[in-house]
Write a structure and sequence with these properties.
single chain, mainly alpha, Sodium/glucose cotransporter, 21 helices, 0% strand, globular
Amino acid sequence: MSLHYSDWLIIAGYFFGLFWIGFIPGRNKKNNQNEFILSGRKLSLPGFIATLVTTWYGAILGIGENTYQYGIQTWFIFAFPYYVFAIIYALWVSNRVRQQKQLSIPDHFRRSYGKTTGIISAVLIVFLSSPAPYILSMGILLQFLFDIQLVWGLILATVFSVGYIWKGGFNAVVKTDYFQFMFMFVGFLILFIFSWKTAVSPFELFSALPTTHTQPLGGNTLQYVLVWFFIALWTMVDPGFFQRCAAAESPEVARKGLLISIGFWFFFDCLTIITGLYAYIIVVPDQPLMSFPVLGAEILPPVYLGLFLVGIFSIIMSTVDSFSLINAITLGRDILWRIKPPKANRYPTPFIRKGLLIVALLSVILAFLIPSVVKLFYIFGSILIPGLILPFLFALQGKRMPEHLANIWILFPVLVSLTWELISFIDGILLWNIEPFYPGFLSSLILWALFYRKT
């Protein structure tokens, strides 16, 4: 991509502003875990909305890829199911999360089932909440802009996105999310307006698309689309949702913030999916994953292109820093600190910082080994969610179970889904034409029925 000097100035200004907001004001923050992990539980309603809305869209290039290939199916697998479960979370889960005052999801497992179960759940959440898909998106974008090797793009993406978390923790994430919230909407509003001016109106756009792009299934099977609906159940064990609800000033802020965020998500989904459809009729990218940047380069004049690229950077980086922090907390506090509590230091913050370095390295490796955003989502979601969702909801109600049964309840469904996935991969076709998520989740339901009766 060839950029005008004004675009480079805008991008440089964005990174400087991000550094200033995220790093400099966070130097003197307290070092205790409540402040570092949850900003002292003082997250206001505007901060809650800004940080939750921006964190959700890290795989924006994957949204462009799926829309380019399958049309409006994107809304039915990446938008609508999440609205449904976000509403359920707001009305039923958020209040319990805020009132029970645990610092992380593994804390709930540990309280209800035992120390070992807490560590097992933390290991699964480390993979489920990995920032690898978002680091991959950022790395590919940097590769596209600077014509560098992907591995260097991944390393730069990681360094840029997590540097200010080291000092500021969650407080730095929230402050930068205000900044990024503005740019993500401005960037895609610009792309939408110029796409309309360049081609046809949104109403005429649909008549120019093939049938597959205007149907909910997008040419895929109903089973495939439904499995994405069930993968959206991960909202219930999403550490990002949990962290923000736990950090809210009150249960009412958490509930209202979630419901208002759904409105912003709906508006932004409309912008991204419509511009993705415009990309289908305007450009022919070498990779569908790059349909948004290629469309921007094709139709946007200088300055506007710079603002749009900053919008994409904002979307991806706001998710990378959030999930990197969550992953570091899970690895550093909920695993390393729990296994070997520090003798000289009362707080786990140093362990979280060590976890941040490990998470960064693991994410770069994962992104390099599985260079597909959608595939990373699908694999982790299909395998891990069946083992976490029901045990977490059970623990959230304050119910208890013997540790050895809880460990089986968590690990066996994961093993079932993983085995199903491996057999399908080896054979080159889905085992019995059934997605791996379903047998795993069914086994979790059966174990719940057996263990609940027994206990």
